[in-house]
Amino acid sequence: MTAPTFDVITTAEASEVAAGGDLDLAVTGRLETLLRRELRLKPPALVFDASAVTFCGARVLTVLLNTTADARRLGVPFALAGRRRALLRPITALGLDRALPVQWSTAEALAWLALVPRLS
């Protein structure tokens, strides 16, 4: 088991919550609190970077789905970054690809977020 880590990186462009290690049921409360805190700050955009995640439990996906809904309600663009098997496999297995699209990197997530309003 790899210990979970969380870092928040804030720039003028976005807040990025970078996670690493095994994200299981034991850390969902911490992750949810962290993402909610960032949303309350209403950054220009919020990116969850899972490029260093080695395991992603189903409850973490619920947190990410709730964050997606909360971000939309608050008008904060939100995206996921880090196309790793640990994140993609459960998303794909549960059919959540459309609700939780994952970009390769934070830079690509920010570029995708810039395009979304034009596609709507």
From TrEMBL:
PROSITE patterns associated with the record: STAS (PS50801)
Coiled coil: none
Pfam families noted in UniProt: STAS (PF01740)
STAS domain span: 21-113
Name of the protein this chain belongs to: STAS domain-containing protein
Source organism: Amycolatopsis iheyensis
